[in-house]
Amino acid sequence: MGGLCSCCSNNADETNLMPSPETRRRQQLEAAERRRFENEHRGVRDLERVKQQQLRSEAKQRRLEEAERAANSGPPTLKWQSN
To answer: Which residue intervals are annotated with compositional bias (Polar residues) in the record (predicted)?
Structure first.
């Protein structure tokens, strides 16, 4: 009889299978950060080189925007001087 009651009741081992919500939330956050990091660096061998290329691309884009603004501002403002 005792064997039947022991398998039907909630055992202390069964109640501790689920981690607390805080622990679970922390684990999910860590896993998400790990996936994000892996996706960002997938296929990248030299991270410094990629950063330098991004900086050059941004600088080039800024120069193009400045040139476009200067071209749209009207005629060039050159001053001629004669001696």
So the answer is: 9-18
Q: Is the dihedral of CA 24, 27, 32, 33 positive or negative?
A: positive
Say how far apart CA 62 and CA 64 lie, in whole Å. Answer: 5
> Which of helix, strand or coil describes residue 31?
helix
Tokens (6 digits) for 70? 């200067």
Q: Helix, strand or coil for residue 58? A: helix
Mean pLDDT by 10 residues, the chain (83 residues): 56 70 95 92 82 96 91 72 78
pTM here is 0.40
